[in-house]
Amino acid sequence: MKTADAVIVGGGCVGTSALFHLAALGTTNTVLLEASSLGSGSTSKAAGGIRMQHDDVVNTRLALRSLQEFTRFEQLTGTPIDFKQVGYLFLLDNDHDFAAFTRAAAAQRELGIPTEILSIDAVREMVPQIYVEDVVGATFCPWEGFAAPEAVVQGYASAARRLGAEIRVGSLVVEILTDGAGVSGVRLEGETISTRSVVIAAGVGSADLARPLGFELPVHGEARTIFYSSQALGVPQSAPLVVDFSTGFYFHREGAGLVFAGRQSDPAELSEPATHRLPAIAEASIESSWWGYYEMSPDHNAMIGQAPVAGLHYATGFSGHGFMQSPAVGEYLAETVRGESTTLDLSSMTADRFVSGQHRTESFVI
Ligand SMILES: Cc1cc2nc3c(=O)[nH]c(=O)nc-3n(C[C@H](O)[C@H](O)[C@H](O)COP(=O)(O)OP(=O)(O)OC[C@H]3O[C@@H](n4cnc5c(N)ncnc54)[C@H](O)[C@@H]3O)c2cc1C
């Protein structure tokens, strides 16, 4: 029977980040088990957005720590991730939302993040194609942008392999095993791996792995679709990722065209908020689309921590912002698996907040 110092379940951005950070810290007798192929879960469906603007300061700290890694990712892993640091532009169409984003911007500036409040004229100048007549206010942070999630997964995976970690794809974990001392291993079809540390980073599959151990991870999948049009509609190449916050409609330049999405998966339903904010989109044809699961938690914040079973760690329920947090979350998981003090304090993110009633709601969910 194989014995590992740690087993990671799930080969998305979070699992591969944890594997890489463990290896970088010197723990290389590790195995990552992925049921399908690397990145095949929510990660490969993500828009790749990386943003600092959150209303929960823990999310901003996670994003900031992650940004430090995204900006030197190629240097760290050898893999380019096509990070386009064009900023996020949030359009707010009511006083309540504008006040919330203004408060959050002040908190971000206290952390050294240059989030600014933009005038409507500045918005017009940035993206002249946007309808701004009903916009009450806007915020913009130039450090934000988007990168390629598959490249991040491949970068972490290949760097971890080079350091000695093992990755197995097509390897479904059927059960996490325990004994009197806590976690004792994982069972695959036809094989058992012995270990005292398991990290559940299985996206929407995480709940099914935890439940048999008497531990609830309340995560559920919410289907989200993204569309691509090869027509850029005059939107400048330098345009930020634009978010119409109240409707959730967003778009950004992608190659010669535009990527856009919203809360509606049916293009006919999306067309109303989309044509309102970007009237020219009525002329666009959709060349392709894809969908995946937002892995939702009850308060739209991630669940990250150690389970009541000794040696069992988890990170799931990112509610649509797991890609941008994956570097810092992987680092945190690696530190806790190794029993070290952690770079960030994520003690408020544990899943037992849903039992104790201490929800911490993130409301800037796109
Ligand atoms: C349309 C869309 C747009 C998004 N846009 C953004 C964005 O702009 N920015 C952002 O930060 N986030 C975004 N997200 C969210 C982001 O994709 C996720 O939060 C993130 O990818 C979660 O990564 P993960 O590694 O935890 O999960 P996943 O990528 O889902 O990886 C989990 C892996 O675990 C594997 N697995 C499950 N069960 C088992 C098992 N029993 N044994 C072995 N393997 C198992 C799965 O096959 C899967 O590959 C978006 C999501 C969607 C769907």
Automatic annotation (TrEMBL):
One Pfam short name: DAO
Keyword terms, alphabetized: Oxidoreductase
Oxidoreductase listed as a keyword: yes
InterPro entries: FAD-dep_OxRdtase, FAD/NAD-bd_sf
Positions of the FAD dependent oxidoreductase domain: 5-335
One annotated GO molecular function: oxidoreductase activity
Keyword Oxidoreductase: yes
GO cellular component: cytoplasm
Protein name as catalogued: Unannotated protein
